[in-house]
Structure prediction request, 603 residues.
Amino acid sequence: MTAFFRTFKLPLALLLIVGLTVCAFITIRRANNEVRAEARARFFEQYNRQQYLVAELTAHSLDEMFATFSRNLELVAGLFDGKEVDREQSQRLKVHLEKIYGSLLGTPVIDLVVFDSKGVAVAIEPHDNFTLGRSYAWRDYYRWVRDQRQPGRMYISPFMPLAGGRKRGVKELIVARGIYGPRGEFHGVVACTLDFDKLARKHVLSVKIGKHGQAWLMDSTTRTILVDPNGRIAGQTFDEALRRRWPRLYELLLSAEDGKPGSGWYEFEDPADPRLKVRKLVSYHPVRLENRLWTVGVTTPEREVEALLSSFLQRQEAISTTLLVTIIGGAAFLIALLYHWNRTLTAQVGLHTRALSEAHSRLEATFDELLVAKKVAAVGHLALGLAHEIRNPLSAIQMNMQMIRKKIEPTGVLCENFSIADGEIQRLNRLLKDVLDFARPRPLRLQTVDLAEIVRRLLQLVDQRLAQYGVTPTTDIESPLELVCDPEQIHQVLLNLVLNAMEAMDGVAGDRTLKVIAYRKESQAYILVSDSGRGIAPDKCEQLFDPFYTTKVSGGGLGLSILQTIVLSHGGSVSVTGGTGTGATFTVTLPLAGPSGTGEKTP
Prediction:
């Protein structure tokens, strides 16, 4: 019996090893396939997430562009406020129309047209004899504006070829809004013609991912292909182009009509060889443009995504093959090797984890120190500058004002002017204290105020300086326009903008006009301060709000930065538009109900 067991002991051991090896082989192979599948799924998920971010940015750029068109159309409509829309009035406003059109240079705008109440073109920039004097009352945008009577709304036409004029045959879009009287009576239409080819090249066709990854654009409202999935400007309907040949893409676009973003895949013609089909990964995002719902998609052939993943999978395959060969050569040796490797790896991971933790702690400490240093430096510059430039002159002004007031004992309007000056001195003293006391910032002193009263008091304050600069101020403020804010800080914001506008017009030939426009839209108050000065280079607009950035020889570069901080603390935003030589417009947006959770409202 003992000899029997001795005889079969080695074969049984070998059989056991072979069995364990086969089991290990199957287990590792299955685990390897699962890892590959999971890695592929995760990688595709992350890639689609990146495509979604690109689609979101593209959608945002389109939305911002149409918002710019809407603001300019509103400016044109505002020129005719309370005036008749006809050829004579258009000629009187020609300079203003030229400036507004000039501010749109560099955008896809072809022309800017004003129509009277009968649909006849009474003004066009640039001048075009073909269009001027013709009736366009049959066009859909004119009928929509005339019949819907929706002040503040902009109409966007479907995709179409341009029927006439200098750009005949160009693919176009029309954006239009109405010109209405104070009681909502229809007076006319102002419209811009957009070169859709130029729009698509700048905002859609410029999006590239990898070799064949690109964006497409669909009009979900009319179910029309604007830019097709291979980057061509189309014009066909979904039914004509997709329903039979590419049903999955057709169904995906129908599902996007709910206005929600998403991702997925579909089959389409291969961009490298249109005779073949290729599966594409896609992420899409909606663009809501007034009466239109567009959908932006960013797509990449699946094979390109697979190629990005291939290097990782190849390394994994090499490791798996080596591991399986080692198992076949000796299971016992492999187990010992894996055990040793596991211990070494654990020690290395622990070592690197500790090193990473220490590096992270040092990085956090360094980052905190940098923030503190930056804050201290900013406060130092600001406090020293204000103390040197304001405190001493302000004290001297206040003392001399008191002496003059005692000496002449003013009455009536002069007394009121002295009171205004004294109030402004006190406000500046409080502002200086707030800056110097940066470590203990005061909460917003929120009140419900009438914006028209703040503007009236501001213009009264700077009346003499306006006359000195030869500037004519005009205001167009919706009444009533009440909002919850810190009136002193909003006064400071508007004063800064008005003073900057006056300085921008210093030395400019021709009319010097300062416009202050304010209106409400939904839950926001919009305040526009425009000048007819030298304008701002487009590449400098984003830098204007950076601390210590200035275009003035003697400026400190903090005015617009402080202005932006005040607006942000109110839960609003500030932006600037305007090209070189066309003047500039600063737009301040504030919530009517005030910032949420900031400060306490005072009676």
